Amino acid sequence: MRDVGLIWLNNLADKLPVLLALDVSNNKIYSLKNLDEMNQLETLVEVNIQKNPIDVHKDLKNMLKEAVPAIEVINNTEIRDTGAGIKNQINQIKK
User: In this structure, is residue 53 part of a structural domain?
Assistant: First the structure.
């Protein structure tokens, strides 16, 4: 979904409930409310949101990490060991 003029992410969890990677780079996404939408994607481990107005926010990576607990890669940069998100999900199930 890159470079298609998106300004909003809507109902992704309903449409793509087991989405692992989301590339919405080079669009017109500007609102932090889109992070709430990504929060619903429990299986999301990779997101690329480069070249969007929201990408200039200095705390974007930290906010994405909080909004999407399983996230491992943000804007093509590994932020956690691959598989860490799945391990966390397994640990949560065991509790």
Answer: yes
Report how far Cα 2 is from the mean position of its chain's Cα atoms: 14
CATH (domain of 61): 3.80.10.10
Domain residues for the domain of 63 are 12-94
Please count the structural domains in the chain: 1
Helix, strand, or coil (residue 14) = helix
31 token code pair = 């609102």
> Rounded to the nearest 5°, which phi and psi values hold at 73?
-135, 125
Helix (H, G, I), strand (E, B) or coil at 2: coil
Q: What is the pLDDT of residues 45-94, one digit of tens each?
A: 999 999 999 889 889 889 888 888 889 999 999 887 766 666 666 566 66
